[in-house]
C-alpha cells in the first residue's frame, strides 16, 4: 500500500510490526533486518533508542507519514513544473499542419489513444457517439464533468438506452440526436475524430481545427434531446424518446414492450396533454417541465 511513498514490501511489513509491538531489538524482530531497520530510520518511520541492547520502535505514524507525503508532493510538484516546460517546448514546434493532426490506425492503437485522451481531461469531456462503439459505455469511466450526444441509431441496440441512463445517474449529461461523426474532446487541448472506420482516427491538437470541432459539438448538443436517468418515470422516458424522433418500433425494443403497448401509451399521453400530434406533445411536455 505504501509503495507510493517509497517503501519496499519488506520495509512496510517490518514497520507495521513495529507499530504493533513495544520496542524490540533487531534479533527479536527477526534475522537479516538490520538493513531494513536502517532504511526505516532514514525515512523517519522507525526510531533507534539509546541504551544497551539497542532497541527500535515505530515513530508516530501520522507524523512520519505526513513527512513522507509532503516529500512526495514536492517531487510531484517539481515533476509538474518539468512537464509544463516540456509541453511548452513541444507546442512551440507545432507550426506545420502535419504536427497539429495525428493519424492513428489500427483498432488497438485507436483504443489506446482514445483512453489516453479520455484520461487527460481535467475540466470537461465532450463526446459524439454512434455505433459501432470501441467499448460499451461504463459509469466508472466518468471522472470529470461529461457531456455526450448519442446518435438516434443507439435506439436500435437493445438495452443501450438503459446503459446510458446508468451513465446519467453517475453524472454524465446525455442527449440523443443526429450525430454525423464520432468525436471526443478533452477540454480545449486535444480531440479525436473518426474517419471511415473504427480503426482509423485523427487526433487533433489545439488549433483552429480543434476549435471548429468544438463548435460542431456545441451545435449538435444544442439541437439534441436530453435523456433521463434510470430514475425517470416510464412516461418521461417515453416522451424523451418521442421528442428525439424515435419510431414506435425502436421505443418498443428499448422498453421491451409490445408495439401496441407503446402506441396505447402515446395516445394516452397525447390525450392528457390535449394535443393531436406528437410534435405538439413534445412542445407541451417541455412547457410543463415533463422533459
Describe this structure in words.
By secondary structure, this protein is of the alpha+beta class. The protein has 3 domains: 1-93, Winged helix-like DNA-binding domain superfamily/Winged helix DNA-binding domain (Arc Repressor Mutant, subunit A), CATH 1.10.10; 99-226, Endonuclease Chain A (Endonuclease, Chain A); 234-287, Winged helix-like DNA-binding domain superfamily/Winged helix DNA-binding domain (Arc Repressor Mutant, subunit A, Orthogonal Bundle), CATH 1.10.10. The chain has helices at 9-20, 26-29, 34-42, 61-92, 97-100, 107-120, 160-169, 208-222, 234-243, 248-255, 259-273, 278-287, and strands spanning 46-49, 55-58, 101-105, 125-129, 146-151, 173-177, 183-186, 190-194, 200-205, 225-226. The protein has an 8-stranded mixed beta sheet, sandwiched between helices. A two-stranded antiparallel sheet has the order 1-2. The chain is elongated, with a radius of gyration of 29 Å. The mean pLDDT is 79.
Main attributes?
alpha+beta; Arc Repressor Mutant, subunit A; Endonuclease, Chain A; 8-stranded mixed β-sheet; 291 residues; elongated; 49% helix
